[in-house]
Amino acid sequence: xxxxxxxxxxxxxxxxxxxxxxxxxxxxxxxxxxxxxxxxxxxxxxxxxxxxxxxxxxxxxxxxxxxxxxxxxxxxxxxxxxxxxxxxxxxxxxxxxxxxxxxxxxxxxxxxxxxxxxxxxxxxxxxxxxxxxxxxxxxxxxxxxxxxxxxxxxxxxxxxxxxxxxxxxxxxxxxxxxxxxxxxxxxxxxxxxxxxxxxxxxxxxxxxxxxxxxxxxxxxxxxxxxxxxxxxxxxxxxxxxxxxxxxxxxxxxxxxxxxxxxxxxxxxxxxxxxxxxxxxxxxxxxx
Length: 287
Known about the structure:
The chain has about 290 residues and is an alpha/beta fold. The protein contains 8 helices and 12 strands.
């Protein structure tokens, strides 16, 4: 009799255990499904929000300026901010379009490629209009006239003019007109630098004989370094313009409108005096 009672008890316990295990298993399955559903919805919501923000920022609100911020007083970095003549003009362009200006700082020699691949919308970097570059990008009306000059050490007694650069070691900024002109000089060794100040430092240290660079940056470098000077002879006369992708005729027209307005309302003169402290030098329109 006891054996029969024990057997019935064991059967009841076994049945109860199976019911409990089945209940637990069902609860876990529902929980897992619910968690996966919430995670998926959250991920989709996040992706949608990110896409919307990126579209609004990049295509509707921001215009990107490409430059090389090693070219004072046209563009440089002061106190963590981009400042300079080109920066202020570019802000006027962004203002005209009702957009925010974003600055992409890169090597000068990379700017045309960045414009062609549409990494930037326009280039303002003291870039000289040339017929060769005009085959690759469109240029705005000229907005500044300048020259290429020669910087030497004050104790120099061998270089008095361009003719004396024959056979000498010349420092230039890569991709500039100064580099092009220097490579035309007979037997000269041309050393290219990412920034003009790097060439000036090597001149000061006696590693090169001269630096060929644009006049206004040259004046800034000389003002901050009592060991160097600018020769009186000027190598070239040239004009700066803003470069735009060949496909963006509308932006080019807007930029030219901004230049016209700045000259008519006197704001160009205000900016010129702010950075150069002298009367405006007339510029001619690019053909």
